[in-house]
Write a structure and sequence with these properties.
Largest sheet of chain A: 2 strands, antiparallel
Number of strands of chain B: 0
Strand content of chain B: under 5%
Number of helices of chain B: 11
CATH architecture of chain A: Orthogonal Bundle
Structural class of chain B: mainly alpha
Strand order of the largest sheet of chain A: 1-2
Distance between the termini of chain A: 15 Å
CATH topology of chain A: MetI-like fold
Helix content of chain B: 55-70%
CATH class of the largest domain in chain B: Mainly Alpha
Oligomer: heterodimer
CATH superfamily of chain A: MetI-like
Strand content of chain A: under 5%
Largest interface: A-B, 115 and 111 residues
CATH topology of the largest domain in chain B: MetI-like fold
Structural class of chain A: mainly alpha
Largest sheet of chain B: none
Chain lengths: 304, 287
């Protein structure tokens, strides 16, 4: 099933692999070459672009190769709020997604084991949001949370929200949208590890007079760590780079603009390519550091 | 959330012999209720999109103005919508074919052969999945800019193929790893040529994995907006159409297309799961 792709822990059945041959080369070369041409060199172009200097007397969007490392200083200081929002919102959304998803994954993977049909029904429901356009489901929340919606009116009636308050356009709405949109990315890897959890270990915890809470914290959580880590990465990475939820036309406002919004605006609207490139490299660097920690823990063989 | 295994209620599991298993983390009724509510929560925007595809709206589709089937019947009357949808299908199909072919070859090589630079290749395959889409999109756009490439449907296809390859490798690799090499050896022992062994044994056995990878690629490509936005130039895809329309109001016809695609996708998932269950049953009976 498709969701195998989201788990980092696919069982690598190690077989006595045959010796390298021309066959392996023929199989690998086209795809690897493709990734070098359309993934690796674009990253290098991004680095080169980030050091470009303005062409003196040139038009908007005219740049010459340079070594303007100051681009980084300028971009980082000018867009510091965007950078902080991106990682702040993504972090909060990831924590929410984990807290919301864990019980779902636990129920499907452990409690519902005896009913495979129920399991696949619930898994289908978890991935169902993937099948409706990302943009439309975000816009649906915009309408549901809009100022005239029953939810907002009810919140105002019970004075949780001030009478002139809004939900859309606030950091709350953006984090809400990010959490909602990436819950499946969190639930699926959690499910994959919890599904393999040996129930006898939980029973052993019980037999040794551990309270359910202790058993959960000392047995279940550590055993599901691979799922927690890959779910966290799969949620945090797209959330940190997202610019749809935070966009003014969706759940955000100019006050919630994230790093992705700054990159998009600088690249596509302002044609300020070096700034867009420098911001992209900053985002990439932070993500790579996180991934690096992950690779350290589990090695490269486990990546795929 | 409070009612998890953290729950301290001492009920035993009703489906099991109560004597043997004292409170093995049983959460009573709280956990199922929570999960049901969470699943409903996940489905809310889908229901909203579906319901508003029947809205008798004029221009923007914000307030409910009455039920109509008209938008479903005249979906292409909305200017540009069906063209954008067609582009999405075209991009999705071509990128899926390319990515599935390239990715399947890599997956076979990764499982079956030992070679140098193995960990570098694993890293190169993993990184596109770990890179935020906005970086992938901006990087490709910077490269196309530097090369002076005109952005259009070809650049979108090139971009989509790139980010689909890794997902194909992950999906197919699991299938190759579960394949018994003895079957291929048997084919060779019976004097099958390398081509015959691949097409008559390996490929049919890998097919479910390859199909799953192709479906995943198509779904990823079809719903991609961020990378497309950087590399499409003036070409619209379905998500890009929605993004542009979001500023002035989404026509109900867009909900129609999204709902129809949703129903089709769910149908495919259900059929494949039912098929798998039936296969499993047959296998169980055989053994």
């Amino acid at each position: 099933m498709a969701f195998a792709a989201f788990a980092s822990t696919d069982a690598a059945v190690t077989k006595p692999a045959r010796r390298a041959s021309t066959v392996a080369l023929v199989l690998l070369l086209p795809g690897i070459l493709y990734l070098v041409l359309f993934f690796l060199t674009p990253l290098i172009s991004l680095v080169i672009t980030s050091f470009q200097a303005e062409l003196p007397g040139g038009d908007i969007g005219d740049y010459v190769p340079g070594l303007q490392w100051q681009n980084y200083v300028h971009s980082a200081s000018e867009y510091l709020p965007h950078i902080l929002r991106a990682f702040g919102y993504a972090l909060v959304a990831t924590v929410f997604a984990l807290v919301i998803s864990y019980p779902i994954a636990y129920f499907i993977g452990v409690k519902a084991r005896r009913w495979p049909l129920l399991q696949s029904l619930m898994l289908t429901l978890v991935i169902a949001p993937f099948f409706i356009s990302f943009l439309l489901r975000t816009l649906a929340w915009k309408q549901i949370l809009s100022d005239e919606s029953p939810i907002v009116l009810a919140l105002k009636a019970v004075a949780i929200l001030p009478t002139d308050g809004h939900l859309t356009g606030t950091p709350f709405a953006v984090i809400f949208g990010l959490t909602y949109n990436f819950i499946p990315f969190m639930t699926l890897p959690l499910y994959t590890t919890l599904e393999r959890l040996d129930i006898r270990l939980l029973e052993a915890g019980n037999d040794l007079y551990a309270s359910p809470a202790t058993t959960f914290l000392k047995v279940t959580v550590p055993l599901s760590m691979p799922g927690i880590i890959s779910g966290t990465l799969l949620t945090f990475i797209p959330a940190a780079g997202d610019y749809i939820n935070a966009s003014r036309d969706f759940l955000g406002s100019s006050k919630t603009a994230m790093l992705g919004n700054a990159i998009e605006a600088n690249f596509l609207t302002l044609q300020n390519y070096p700034v867009a490139a420098a911001l992209s490299i900053i985002l990439m660097a932070v993500i790579l550091m996180l991934v690096g920690v992950y690779v350290r823990r589990s090695g490269t063989e486990d990546l795929l | 959330m409070t009612a998890l295994p953290l729950d301290t209620t001492n009920q035993s599991d009703p489906d099991h012999a109560p004597a043997r298993r004292p409170r093995r983390g049983s959460a009573g009724i709280g956990l199922p209720i929570y999960v049901a509510l969470a699943l409903v929560f996940l489905l809310i925007p889908i229901g909203y999109t579906f319901v508003f595809s029947f809205n008798d709206s004029v221009k923007s589709n914000l307030a409910w103005r009455g039920f109509t089937l008209e938008k479903w019947l005249t979906v292409c009357n909305e200017p540009g919508l069906c063209e954008a949808f067609g582009n999405s299908i075209l991009v999705g199909v071509v990128a899926t074919v390319l990515a599935t072919a390239l990715g399947t070859a890599i997956a076979i090589a990764l499982v079956r052969y030992r070679f140098r630079f193995r960990s570098s290749i694993s890293l190169l395959l993993f990184l596109p999945m770990a890179t935020p889409e906005v970086v992938l999109g901006a990087g490709l756009a910077a490269q196309f800019l530097a090369l002076g490439t005109q952005k259009g449907i070809v650049t979108v296809i090139l971009a989509h193929t790139m980010f689909c390859i890794s997902f194909v490798v992950v999906t197919v690799k699991a299938r190759v790893a579960g394949l018994d090499p003895a079957l291929e050896e048997a084919g060779r022992d019976l004097y099958g040529s390398a081509g015959q062994v691949f097409w008559r044994i390996t490929f049919p056995l890998l097919l479910p994995g390859i199909l799953a990878a192709a479906l995943l690629s198509f779904a990823l490509s079809f719903d991609d907006f961020i990378i497309t936005n950087f590399n499409a130039g003036s070409v619209d895809t379905f998500p890009k159409f929605i993004y542009i329309a979001a500023a002035r109001g989404i026509p109900a016809e867009a909900n129609v297309i999204a709902s129809a695609v949703f129903l089709l996708a769910i149908a495919i998932v259900v059929v494949s799961q039912v098929g798998r269950a039936a296969r499993q049953k047959r296998l169980d009976r055989l053994s």
